[in-house]
Design goal:
alpha+beta; 3 strands; 15% strand
């Protein structure tokens, strides 16, 4: 069986936790950031878990994670 290639776009956008959960960044973090309130900007700082429906697709893109 040949080695599987990791999708580099998915590798930079998603992180896998120690328990196997997939994390993603929230959108709206970079564009038009100066006009947003500081409280709103802090809401974009953390990472959130991906939905369970998207997880099988992402697992195929990240085979060794």
């Amino acid at each position: 069986m040949p080695k599987l290639k990791t999708h580099k776009g998915a590798k930079s956008r998603f992180h896998v936790t120690g328990t196997g959960k997939l994390l993603r960044m929230k959108c709206g973090k970079s564009h038009f950031r100066r006009r947003k309130a500081p409280r709103t900007k802090r809401m974009y700082d953390g990472m959130v878990a991906t939905s369970a429906a998207d997880a099988p697709r992402l697992r195929r893109l990240l085979p060794y994670s």
